[in-house]
Design goal:
The complex is a heterodimer of chains A (about 290) and B (about 300). Chain A has about 290 residues and is mainly α. Chain A contains 15 helices and no strands. Classes of the chains: A mainly alpha (about 290), B mainly alpha (about 300).
């Protein structure tokens, strides 16, 4: 927007002064962008520095933005004291299963709400959507009892099943699938395709970006989920990385080197995936009719 | 013909119900049933996880005279009315900046949204690391330029501010992303016309950009309020609601009652209050902007 501002200014008024003004504006914007980016990046940079610094370095009172020497001692201490590999595996397993269930369930429901006519569909859609407003803390007490009574407590399913249905996933799917022309579906129906065939042969192939978005967003959310897993995962060996991270902090207190080393194991894989999947992520938001 | 169409529709209806069934079953079992159950529990006095005893509105009347509950309510509202407009304003500012001509614009955009990928617990712990009032890098920086140290942990206001700052760091990227999508949908000819009419940069921002990203603002308003009502990870890990409940919010207070002190009936009542607050917001939103429905 201010981009077009600077180019157009060049055209009307006197050429030299405005070009200089446009140039100054450009440099000011660049400087501002660099400052903001630095504010966002610095805490992450600092996490990495602390994770790679020795204890003595961290305890010294002077201000230094670069470690005296890099060391992996924090990682060694964390890996030897906690079942980090198990927790990492738990996080991967739970996130993948939730993402698969969530994508499937959201696509099916999103297709029905977008393209199929049935009594009460609007009302049911609003009902599904309204659960977005509901914090887990409102239902955590009965949900915990339910999970215990169903003998799910002490298994992965205690986390997986209550988090698998995603109101946002259904919303996003419906918005995306609404954009598929109804004529395309009707034509396939007239050609004799069954409802399930329409879904698998027409809707799914056209929804690849949506599927990527849903899968990644669910993966991200579950990987980072905290409030419910904190309640639902009691045994140490079932912990996911965020719960393990809190547990480790409780044990190690202000041993920031160890805490940050472990935090990196939680943060690193997701940031990498995020950067790779970014296109789908941004595209998903833009195409969900949110504009 | 008509009978054939109605048969087709019946088939379509059945398919519709079948397709939404998996989602609805999960939702019913793990959200709606617990919600109804939570209403029941909120009228009970419970001891740990044993069967409760009905005590009428006792839990609710207790809320009225509980100072920690009121503190948590005030903090939740305060958090919401600060985080929502500030994260939207900064988000819009950065979106406008990163929608203009800049080198490596894509890289800047990516950097802004990286915090979205980081877990609440890790974010909170990075916050603890940076804001530590004894060894934190922030206070070292503050003192190195000659300013007085800030008691980020022992001071109530400072602790609340530290949670707000970390929240903004975490959330601004999301706001920017939504606004960026909104900005890219704007017809640039409008700006051309405004410029020919002699509108200044600020006028174009105020009278074109702001109204034109209205739908994005509306969407963000809802999501930011919903998020703020539910803020748990950051508070729980960064401050645990302390010092002396200065940062306690409704969700952390409910958790403390339900799973630390084991007063589950009371925790459920706090949950009901939070739900009522959310519904009130929805109602106000519905009344004030019927024309812009999220759904259609």
């Amino acid at each position: 927007m201010s981009a077009s501002a600077s180019t157009a200014v060049k055209q009307d008024a006197g050429p030299r002064s405005t070009r200089r003004r446009g140039r100054a504006g450009y440099l000011a914007r660049l400087a501002l962008a660099i400052v903001i980016a630095a504010v966002i990046i610095f805490p992450l940079y600092w996490m990495v520095v602390v994770a790679l610094s020795s204890r003595a370095d961290l305890l010294s009172g002077d201000l230094r933005l670069w470690p005296r020497a890099f060391t992996t001692e924090n990682f060694d201490r964390v890996l030897s004291s906690f079942p980090v590999a198990t927790w990492f595996g738990n996080s991967v397993a739970i996130s993948l299963v939730v993402a698969l269930i969530s994508v499937t369930v959201s696509l099916l429901a999103g297709y029905a709400f977008a393209q199929l006519r049935f009594r009460g569909s609007n009302w049911l859609f609003l009902l599904a959507l309204s659960t977005l407003m509901l914090p887990v803390q409102v239902i955590m007490v009965p949900l915990f009892r339910l999970v215990s009574n169903a003998h799910l407590y002490g298994t992965y399913w205690a986390v997986i099943l209550p988090t698998a249905a995603s109101a946002f996933g259904v919303f996003l799917s419906r918005q995306f699938i609404l954009a598929i022309p109804r004529d395309l579906i009707d034509a396939a129906r007239i050609d004799g395709a069954g409802q399930l065939q329409v879904f698998t042969k027409i809707v799914l192939p056209l929804s690849k970006p949506l599927i990527a978005v849903l899968f990644f967003m669910s993966l991200l959310q579950t990987w980072n989920d905290f409030a419910w897993p904190l309640i639902a995962l009691k045994q140490n060996e079932l912990f996911t990385l965020p719960i393990g991270l809190l547990y480790l902090q409780g044990q190690f207190g202000s041993d920031y080197g160890a805490t940050m080393a472990f935090a990196l194991l939680n943060v690193g894989p997701m940031v990498l995936l995020f950067l790779v999947f970014q296109r789908y992520f941004v595209q998903g938001f833009a195409r969900s009719g949110i504009r | 013909m008509t009978s054939r169409r109605s048969r087709l529709n019946r088939g379509e209806s059945l398919t519709g119900y079948a397709f939404i069934a998996p989602n609805m079953v999960l939702l019913t079992v793990f959200v709606l049933v617990p919600l109804g159950w939570a209403v029941v529990i909120s009228f009970q006095q419970t001891n740990g996880f044993g069967a409760g005893r009905f005590v009428g509105f006792d839990n609710y009347t207790r809320l009225a005279t509980d100072p920690v509950f009121w503190r948590s309510t005030v903090n939740t509202v305060l958090f919401t009315v600060i985080v929502t407009p500030v994260s939207m304003a900064i988000g819009l500012g950065i979106a406008v900046l990163l929608n203009s001509v800049l080198p490596a614009r894509g890289v800047f955009r990516s950097i802004m949204i990286v915090p979205m990928a980081i877990s609440g617990v890790a974010t909170a712990l990075i916050g603890v690391l940076v804001f530590d009032q004894d060894t934190g890098i922030l206070d070292k920086l503050i003192r190195s330029v000659g300013l007085p140290a800030v008691n980020w942990q022992s001071g109530g206001t400072a602790a609340f501010a530290s949670v707000l700052i970390v929240t903004l760091w975490w959330r601004v990227g999301f706001n920017m992303l939504i606004y960026l999508a909104g900005l890219q949908g704007i017809n640039l000819e409008l700006y051309e016309a405004a410029r020919l009419d002699g509108a200044s940069w600020w006028q174009r921002f105020r009278y074109l950009t702001v109204p034109l990203v209205g739908p994005s603002s509306f969407f963000l308003l809802i999501l930011n309020v919903v998020y703020s009502f539910q803020v748990f990870d950051l508070v729980f890990v960064m401050t645990g609601g302390g010092p002396e409940n200065a940062t306690s919010v409704l969700v952390t207070y409910a958790y403390d009652n339900g799973f630390v002190t084991g007063d589950q009936g009371y925790a459920a009542a706090i949950g009901m209050f939070l739900l009522a607050l959310s519904l009130l917001f929805t109602l106000v939103r519905w009344r004030t902007s019927r024309t812009r429905d999220l759904v259609e």
